[in-house]
């Protein structure tokens, strides 16, 4: 494999301080406005899916509902529980919210060249870029999880602690597969810079070249943001409210803000890595040369982000919450093996391309390797299936009421196994009917006899 090519990042770091401040405020405002719109949009879309009305009182068409919710939360009483570790308890919402805003700094809203003019200064439609921008995004996203974990631990309550531990396990399970999906993009683009990755998708988006990486990232980004059907850290059915049970007022609002900002951030990362970033979609870019110039790239970027946010809402209104064992099984037994095998396949293809092999030869080698692996797995499965069948013929299997993980009644002809340390039937009948073995039938003193 050839080493990563040196990116041309000379256009970053040359803006005057006031222009950098304007771009930073724009990134913050973009996230806040998108969050306010997403909250209303989610309630409207879910209400439409469930044949309800949804918000329709605050503002035109209820568009100010999220703003009213934010004001209501700020005016509520801020309660701090007595058993909480106050320093960590107050710091946890800040740790969860601030990293959510930081990742947007390296997301390109438009071309890296000096495409737009702000008060006479030509600048790029991106706050900054780094040679390792994607590693920066992964690091920032990992720090945000600490806010949830610390919130659950510092509350001094059982259910928030369980929610924090679930979030920690979920992060470990899904970030491995997410990193492998990112690595496939790095191999194809030859860079970890976000602007360079978008530039490398000029001819073909990576959703077409790396479809497995896109699907793996879509699943992991839902798990990383703790959204349904993977919202186990805040499962109200068994954890009351999860890690934020003991929070109220502005602290609770910061957790909700962090969740929706993370949704926007992971959607922007998905657009940057797999959907061409700020580039116009294929039918528009073919007959309109100016579609990728000026302020138009920002429009395409925002439309793609909104489509992914609709995907989040669609999942919430469609799928039920999974069990925790299903969540872990999907992460460790499905996503991680698939992403690692796919990464090895992508690395093999790139190595053959760098060695100047023809596309037909690469397809032949890869197809032969995949066929050999499938044949080997088929043979192994055949031998593994034959062994239990032979054991079943030799000895009939005993009925196990917990075979599937849940208690089930026996079928006709099956009997339940003996219960350990169970009382004999005659002794149980004596106890139930008040026989002489019960403590109440023991010898009585004279006082009790005279009372009778």
Oligomer: single chain
Radius of gyration, CA atoms, in whole angstroms? 30 Å
Q: Could you tell me the mean pLDDT? A: 84
Let me know the number of strands: 2
Largest sheet: 2 strands, antiparallel
Cα shape: globular
Give me the number of helical elements: 16
State which percent range the strand residues make up: under 5%
Termini separation (Å)? 98 Å
Helix content: 55-70%
Class per helix and strand makeup: mainly alpha
Question: Largest sheet, order of strands side by side?
Answer: 1-2
Could you list the spans in which at least 5 consecutive residues all have pLDDT below 50? Answer: 1-5, 446-452
Helix-strand pattern: HHHEEHHHHHHHHHHHHH
Outline the fold blueprint.
Blueprint: H1 17-49, H2 65-75, H3 86-102, E1 116-118, E2 121-123, H4 133-154, H5 158-189, H6 194-199, H7 206-209, H8 211-224, H9 236-239, H10 249-274, H11 282-287, H12 296-318, H13 324-354, H14 359-394, H15 425-433, H16 446-451
Antiparallel strand pairs: 1-2
GO molecular function: NADH dehydrogenase activity; oxidoreductase activity, acting on NAD(P)H, quinone or similar compound as acceptor; quinone binding
Enzyme class: translocase
Transmembrane segments: 17-41, 88-110, 130-153, 174-198, 204-223, 260-278, 298-318, 330-350, 362-383
């Amino acid at each position: 494999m050839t080493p990563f090519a040196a990116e041309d990042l000379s256009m970053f770091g040359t803006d005057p301080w006031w222009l950098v401040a304007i771009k930073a405020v724009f990134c913050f405002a973009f996230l806040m406005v998108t969050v306010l719109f997403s909250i209303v949009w989610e309630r409207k879309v879910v209400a439409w899916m469930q044949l309800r009305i949804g918000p329709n009182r605050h503002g035109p068409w209820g568009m100010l509902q999220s703003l009213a919710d934010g004001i209501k939360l700020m005016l509520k009483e801020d309660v701090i529980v007595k058993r909480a570790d106050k320093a960590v308890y107050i710091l946890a919402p800040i740790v969860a919210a601030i990293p959510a805003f930081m990742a947007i700094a390296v997301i390109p809203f438009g071309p890296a060249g000096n495409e737009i003019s702000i008060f006479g200064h030509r600048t790029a439609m991106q706050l900054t870029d780094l040679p390792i921008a994607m590693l920066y995004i992964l690091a920032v996203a990992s720090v945000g999880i600490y806010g949830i974990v610390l919130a659950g631990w510092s509350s001094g309550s059982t259910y928030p602690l369980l929610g924090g531990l679930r979030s920690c396990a979920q992060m470990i399970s899904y970030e491995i597969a997410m990193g492998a999906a990112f690595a496939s993009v790095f191999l194809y683009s030859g860079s970890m810079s976000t602007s360079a990755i978008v530039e490398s998708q000029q001819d073909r988006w990576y959703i077409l070249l790396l479809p497995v990486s896109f699907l793996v990232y879509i699943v992991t980004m839902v798990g990383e943001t703790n959204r349904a059907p993977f919202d186990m850290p805040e499962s109200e059915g068994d954890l009351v409210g999860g890690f934020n049970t003991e929070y109220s007022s502005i602290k609770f609002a910061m957790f909700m803000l962090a969740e929706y900002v993370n949704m926007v951030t992971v959607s922007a990362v998905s657009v940057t890595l797999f959907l061409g970033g700020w580039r116009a979609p294929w039918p528009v870019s073919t007959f309109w040369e100016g579609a990728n110039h000026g302020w138009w790239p920002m429009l395409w970027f925002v439309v793609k982000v909104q489509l992914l946010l609709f995907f989040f809402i669609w999942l919430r209104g469609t799928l039920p919450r999974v069990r925790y064992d299903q969540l872990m099984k999907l992460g460790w037994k499905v996503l991680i093996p698939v992403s690692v095998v796919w990464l090895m396949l992508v690395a093999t293809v790139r190595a053959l391309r760098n060695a100047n092999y023809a596309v037909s030869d690469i397809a032949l080698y890869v197809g032969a390797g995949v066929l050999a692996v499938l044949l080997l797995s088929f043979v192994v499965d055949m031998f593994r299936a034959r062994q239990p069948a032979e054991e079943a013929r030799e000895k009939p299997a005993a009925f196990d009421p917990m075979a599937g993980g849940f208690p089930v009644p026996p079928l006709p002809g099956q009997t339940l196994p003996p219960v350990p340390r169970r009382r004999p039937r005659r002794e149980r009948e004596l106890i139930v009917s008040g026989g002489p073995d019960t403590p109440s039938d023991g010898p009585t003193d004279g006082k009790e006899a005279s009372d009778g």
